[in-house]
Amino acid sequence: MKYETAGDPMSDLKWTRKTTAKIVDALALINIAVSNPTVGKILKNLNFSLKTNVKSIANGGKPRTKKENEDRNNQFEYINKMIIKFAKRRMPAISVDTKKKEPIGNFKNPGTRYKREADLTNDHDFLTYAAGIAALYGVYDQQKK
Fold it and tell me: Closest Cα to residue 26, out of 8, 42, 41, 39?
């Protein structure tokens, strides 16, 4: 586990790159019989936690040009001016983000949970399998804090 462990240096929170099944297999090699759920409980007691990938690298990791940065900044400055303009008139300025599109149907979703059996989903996320596409959005009104 030593080389498969990572964590947050600011807290006791840790995680491992190994699945509970791989840990069970490794323990079996040294004659320790234990189940996947038991390994999960032990890891939780040792301040490990379930993790998933986080999209945090902007622009796919590609560096932006100076012009692209200026254009992006101009967009945000314009939005900020509009927010101020509407706030002065006591009118709502609502931010709506609809970039993420999700296929509707029996598709795999990120995340984990302890269950006896896995949920079965389509083996591919082809849009032709979808009953439709949902444009998820969030609404935020700064004046209604």
Answer: 39
Please give the backbone phi and psi of residue 110, each rounded to the nearest 5 degrees, phi first: -70, 160
H helices of the chain, where?
A: 20-29, 36-45, 66-88
Return the amino acid letter for 4: E
Contact 108/134 with Cβ under 8 angstroms? no
Q: Where are the domains of the chain?
A: 2-45, 58-144
3-17, 21-35, 81-95: least confidently modelled range: 3-17
Provide the token pair at 127.
């849009």
108-121 pLDDT, tens per residue? 877 777 677 777 88
Paired tokens of 33:
């019989």
Task: Find out whether 58 and 113 touch, Cβ atoms under 8 Å.
Answer: no
Q: What pTM was estimated for this model as a whole?
A: 0.36
Q: Per residue in 79-127, pLDDT tens?
A: 889 888 988 998 877 767 677 788 888 888 777 776 777 778 888 878 8
- What residues does 104 pair with on adjacent strands? 132
